[in-house]
Write a structure and sequence with these properties.
It is a single chain. With about 750 residues, this protein is an alpha/beta fold. It folds into 4 domains: about 180 residues, Rossmann fold; about 70 residues, no CATH class; about 160 residues, 3-Layer(aba) Sandwich (Rossmann fold); about 200 residues, Rossmann fold, CATH 3.40.50. Strand 9, helix 9 and strand 10 form a beta-alpha-beta unit. The chain is globular and about 85 Å long.
Amino acid sequence: MRILMITIGYPPEQVGGTEVYVLGLVEALKQKGHECAVAYLEVFHDEGGPELQVVSREYQGANVHVIQVNSAKHKLEFIVFDPVLRAKLIAEFRKLVKEIRPDVVHVHPLQLGFDSYLIEALNQAGEKVLMTFHSSITTCARGDLLYMGAQVCDSLVLQDRCTKCLYHWKAVPAALAAPLSKLPVNWYRSVFAALADWPSLKKLRSFVSVPLIIEERRSAWTRTAANARVIVAVCEWVRDTIIKNGGSRERVIFSRHGLRFGAETNGHVPAGLLRFGYLGRVSPEKGIGVLLQVLKAMPPRVEYAFEFCSSSFQSSNRRPEEEDLVQAIYRLQKEDSRVRVLDDVGDNELRPVLAKWDAMVVPSLWLESGPQVIYEAFAVKTPILGSRLGGIAELVREGETGFLCAPNSVKELGALLRRFAERPADLRSLRGNIPPVRTTKDVAEDMLKVYQNVLANGAGSRSACSRLADPVMQATAKAISQVRHGNIGRRMPALWTVVRPFWRLAAAALTLGRGFRHVVNGVDTFRLTLEMSHNTDPFDWEPEEYRDVMSAIHEGDQVMDIGAFWGLFSLGAARRVGPNGRVIAIEPGPRQASMLKANLRGNNFESIVECVELVCADATGESVEFFVDPEGSMVDSAVAKPGRNARSVQRQTTTVDDLVNRFDLHPGVIKIDVEGFEDLVLKGARTTLRQYQPVLFVEFHHEELALRDVQSTDVLGFLENLGYECQELLNQSQTTIPRGHLFRFTHRAGAPA
């Protein structure tokens, strides 16, 4: 098999976590007889040189191709906003692909910017492309997934929130960052474009680009989710992050990192003075500040040794915050003889050093995707004292291979160090529990299975007729829709009456009655009814809300979709809960319910989703008028709107509590979009909310509620009394709650049920 690795760099010129991972994977694949090539993008500077050039070399038997961009002519900082440069770079990569002719293209990005466009282009060209998610930088524009630099983020890319956070990271006060995040993105786009002709205002242009960067990151996730055949997650929180941001659960593969070299037995038996150590970069997100506070507070009577081992001490390119920490460590070494800096440890000397440590301290404040240092420690049977967070918590079995503490807790970390300094045997006894370390050979085995599956399933399971029918019929549908709603259609309404039955027969025959295949929100692929056929790919329908709701749904969950409409959220929920889960879709609108059922049939979800054609309210068995728009807007409601020429149909009411009892549900997620009946639906769900405390997604329809003399703030107050809160709506007034957005409500920890 021939594999092309597109990465962010490669040894010996670049040696970082991702680069070493790719090197180890290439080595292991080559040992198994497979051919690997490597390509990446980098910058060079030559005032009189070409704008682009390709430099090829060989490293340890692998051909390495470097596409270089001349920084004298182009700025990679704005590559995602430069379609001309982007197209040229994609063309260069496609030339390489054509020359190398790989069976599989494996992309290892740092940031999902240019790489998402490259994945899209290669997939559209017929290449089998997959991606490995290595770092929080892939999601977070700050790079550390620390919201406002203070708390671990949920990793969901949201426009306003991420814009505010990135501005704050750029030293903008929070009080100013918040209003900046609320300005329309289009305004920033126009200012950014206007500043292109003013080189002297480069810094201002960079400042204005912040909301555009966030918008681009959200779009990048959509592109990647739609075009990568597989996305590899290197730890559990990464897997959850991919799914939260739109990755299809079926296409996410879990495969942890591994070391290039396996475990070693060096015969070292720890004894005497207890020895702690830190290995890794000296930077704030690594928790060095917390560690220094702990060491400074250690009582003089406590005997131990602590060693800092880091390449940061030798680096000449430290950031200001890193420089401050390095100098603080040097000062502590002078003040406290128990602390020592190891600033000249070579690669071949590292493992003997680690083996002499009784524990490696990993006090990170951010979500580590490995971290690789834990694999290094386990390779020589050294336990871990680390933060109960991200990849650290996934790898360390508390009380068996190490101990964990709350991140950023001087008190808890200090207690651990004092405890084991006084009772070393408790820590040293853990060495025998540490399992064999995972290596890149194990990673290569995982990847070969992934590659083989991608190749086996690359052509898809649809017939040639079906693959041809979708684009042809979708194009025809769009053309017919344009004619129908254009001048000809308005002048000759009888024409559509004649054409419609023939069109429906032809479309139904070619799609076997299952509707057209659409990529929805760049995340899921569904077959949708003919009524949706004028919408062609990309099919975007409430994409941000869709990703947010889908991120809360897991395999085996039970979900209620109240106001299911044509079934967007019900379809997505059905795909995620799987055959062991259940979805109850409540939709009283006659046309909408018909479309919903057709969409469920077309996607084989009838066994998972139960349709209920009733109005959800605060009582069961009552008859209410349901108003249907005869003009076909599809926005029907149980609330009569003035000036609207609607006809009414009679519908019976039910409550959430009754549906939960009827279907024996334990709902984990409830979505509510009911055009002005929000308060009644929630009142009819009191028992369910108290008993099961599901995550709620609620859309507020102020005008419709007001027609019933109800305010949105009344609904918020009702939820507050039940222990629910929404971070987006804290301290919001009626006039500042936007319409057309699903707000996530969660039950407060410790709130009375």
